[in-house]
Amino acid sequence: MIRKILFLVFPLVFALACGKVEGIKDIGIFKPRAQRQKVKPPTPKYRDVFNAPLERVWTATLQGVEWMRWAPAFLDKKKGIIRLKEAYVYRRDGKIIRSYKWPRTDILNLSRVDDYVSKVAIYTDPYNPYRIVFTQESMVINVNSLSASKTGVVINYRIRPYLGSGRFGEELRSSGYIESRLLQKIREKLGTEPLAKTSLR
Length: 201
Hints:
Layout: H1 2-26, E1 45-50, H2 54-68, E2 72-76, E3 81-84, E4 87-92, E5 95-99, H3 105-110, H4 114-120, E6 121-122, E7 132-145, E8 151-163, E9 173-174, H5 177-190, E10 194-200
Antiparallel strand pairs: 1-8, 1-10, 2-3, 3-7, 4-5, 4-7, 6-9, 7-8
Helix pairs in contact: 2-5
């Protein structure tokens, strides 16, 4: 009698177990992608509103750009656009150099600009095993008239690190250091304080 009961129970248990396994198969299980999509960090824009007409602010901005020793690539006064040349920043003979040509191989072997990047960008990746050899940078400045006596300046600065692994890393978020220095120089040239403090747009 006991054998008959066991003979009937075992197939039933097996059928229930199979039913549960099939149920699990029907559930959509999330599988992470093999390659993680890189999310491009938002690039902040820094701005000030100056209590001065467009002509004066435009001139002061160009003087500030000259002070930075960063040559313009394109100027459109009517649209208020100042686009600077794409630049490469690296270290040569212990000094930080901004150039408009790809660095030579001998420079790449010796250059390291981690300290510079930590100042101009938000770079907090302690697990990156590669040093930053140089950076590729660009800047677009918009100078727009808000009224007859008020002018706004918006700066969009972008920076990408070139790593010791021989490739570019992801674009870094600006720390605002360079933008704030340029805006301060514009203030000095105008001899006036801005109506609004330097802020993100």
